[in-house]
Amino acid sequence: MENDILDALEDLAYEDAVDETVLSKAVEGGSQSQVFTKLCAWITVELKGLCNLEECVHPTQSEEDTEGFEMEMSSFLNEFGCPHAGVSSGDFAQRFRTRENCLLLLDYLLTELQAAQMTHANHPRPPTTPTGQAPASPHTGELKAICITLGMSRPPPTITTFQFFTGVEKKLREFLSKVPQDHIGRPLMKRAMAPGQWAQLEIINRKLAEEYRIRREMLLKRLDVTIQSFNWSDRTKGKEDAVAQAFRPKRQVLSTQTNVILADLLSAREDIARIQKTSFGATRHNCAINKVLMGRVPDRGGRAWERAPPPKEMPAFRKREEGGRGGFGGGRGGHRGGYGGGGDRG
Predict the structure, then answer these.
(1) pTM beyond cutoff 0.85
(2) What percentage of the chain reaches a pLDDT higher than 70?
């Protein structure tokens, strides 16, 4: 069950890194583990948004919050209609403090969250916002990050877009005046683009992103299949968990999605065209993978000239003898003549 939970967390893109050791300690601690309560709280928040629930669970910050977490989780499970009596009924102190119940709870919640996401993907609902409150812009986070990075104060609600970016430009010029002239280099793209050209670049970027997403999925699938094939060997029998524990942290950081956007094109400098590949020149020899030496491997054969020729399936060709067919015909004629002669004698 632990591997199923880890796979589900990976598929759901859980924000924190969770491996078998972390998960084992979390379920051992149960409601007294902050890692466990944070994970449960994250799942319930996702379910609340997808299923329009009222109850919600908050993570614990100390042992004093344990009882409150248990009460909130019990209320959430009752509203959600959990069918498992071990975690939805009985004494609060025993529901979420045993390893078995904690694994059962996580497995149940993660399964329900995956089903809810699939249902939402097939039948999406429009997002709801509080009355009188406009939905947040998808670029709000980026604008906030700009203000924090440049040390700018929070802009007033009445500021226009032109005024905001004028302030950003002024702040950038202030920072650039304090560094050498070629500190950030010259931009790779120097030509001004029309709105229609930006739209075409966006289309090209989306198509390239989809192309590389498919390539990454293929490579990651080959990687997963290769690791699975290791478990078929007699030498790794009984070590499947150790292989998964070593492989999972490295696999979790590999994504099929690309994060290249048009902003990367604007921020690219001229030196990006001079970056050497890891398979070229001096960079190749400094690459860590080239320092790995393979030992002697058994001869697997496969050389065509060492194989015996296949047996002959047909007899060798032989030239036809002259007159052979005529003699056969004459024989048939003589036989018929002899038979007729015998009839006359009778």
Answers:
(1) no
(2) 84
